[in-house]
C-alpha cells in the first residue's frame, strides 16, 4: 500500500493533482483543504496518501496532514460514506470543525455539506462520536504540502483561469454546474478582487451556495 508520496507537482487542479516521481506520474484526488496548501506547479510536493482498492480501480487520495488522512479514514468507516463524499466533507469542514460538529451533535452543520443529506449526517455523528477523540487534534500546522514553513505566494496559489477552476471545484463537491457558475459570478460581481484569489473565490461561492440550501 502507498502511504506517502513525494515528487514534482506536475498538474495542479482543484480536487486532482499529478505527482511525478521516478519517471511515473501518479494521479491523486484531494480535498480543497489540501489544494489550498499546495506549492506551485513544478515544485516539490509531499503528501500523506490513502490508497483505496476497488474491483475496477486503484485510487490514491492525498492529504496535507496526518490529521486530514485520519479524518478521511474515520469518515470512510461510516455506512454510506464513500471516498468522494469524505473528500467533500473535508473540503468544507476542517478536521477541527468536523470534530466540533460531531462532539456537539451538530447534524445540520454536516448536513450542509453538498451531497451529504440528513440521514448520512446523523450516521456520521452517531457512529463517530466516540471515535473522534482518537484524532488528538493539535493547532493547525503552518507547514505546507511542499514540506516548507513558508506560505505559498499569492501568485502560486492562483492558477490560470480562477473562475473556471472555482466552478470545477464546486462541481466536484456535488454542486450543479449551472448553480456553481451562478454563485461564482455573483461573488465576483459583488467583489471584483475575488477574481484574482481562487481560495477566497471558492470559499465565498461555497458560502453562497450553502446559504441557499
Question: How would you describe what is shown here?
Answer:
This protein has 213 residues and is α+β, with helices and mostly antiparallel strands. Helices cover 45% and strands 18% of the residues. A hairpin with a 4-residue loop joins strand 4 (44-53) and strand 5 (58-63). Helix 8 (162-172) packs across helix 9 (177-190). It is globular.
Structural class: alpha+beta
Strand fraction: 15-25%
Strand order of the largest sheet: 1-2-3-5-4
SS elements, strand count: 5
Number of helices: 10
Tell me the number of structural domains: 3
Sheet having the most strands: 5 strands, mixed, barrel
The backbone outline, from C-alpha atoms, is globular
Uncertain ranges: 138-144, 148-160
Amino-to-carboxy terminus distance:
39 Å
Write out the CATH superfamily name of the largest domain: 5' to 3' exonuclease, C-terminal subdomain
Helical amount among residues, as a percent range? 40-55%
Rg, please?
17 Å
Query: Can you write the helix and strand succession as a string?
Result: EEEHEEHHHHHHHHH
CATH third-level topology of the largest domain: DNA polymerase, domain 1
Mean pLDDT: 83
Overview in brief:
45% of the residues lie in helices and 18% in strands. It has 213 residues and is an alpha+beta fold.
Helix/strand layout:
Blueprint: E1 4-13, E2 16-21, E3 24-29, H1 32-35, E4 44-53, E5 58-63, H2 66-76, H3 83-92, H4 95-104, H5 107-111, H6 118-128, H7 154-157, H8 162-172, H9 177-190, H10 198-212
Helix pairs in contact: 2-3, 8-9, 8-10, 9-10
